[in-house]
Design goal:
35% helix, 91 residues, alpha+beta, 23% strand, two-stranded antiparallel sheet, single chain, two-stranded parallel ribbon
């Protein structure tokens, strides 16, 4: 069981040709832990179905994780937090 995964949501467009996966973890360790659980299925999906794979990160990440994304996903777009609601919405 992955105790650090907060969200793992899949979104598919109307004609089924485009998919987005939104993931949220408590920490970078959570992403790495999750990856260990899904590596076989993920490798098959990317081999057979995923084209033009892109990753985005919202917040700061380590150089180690940035290098890992570059190696396995062709890089990452990083977005820094600017402004939001004063009180977080319940999850």
């Amino acid at each position: 069981m992955n105790r650090q995964t907060l969200r793992y949501d899949w979104f598919v467009n109307e004609d089924g040709t485009d998919c987005e996966v939104h993931e949220a973890y408590l920490s970078e360790a959570g992403l790495i832990e999750h990856n260990q659980h899904v590596v076989a299925a993920r490798d098959a999906w990317f081999r057979d179905y995923a084209f033009d794979h892109r990753m985005s990160v919202y917040g700061e990440i380590s150089q180690q994780l940035s290098d890992l994304f570059k190696k396995h996903a062709g890089g990452v777009s990083k977005f820094s937090f600017v402004q939001g609601l004063e009180q977080a919405a319940p999850v």
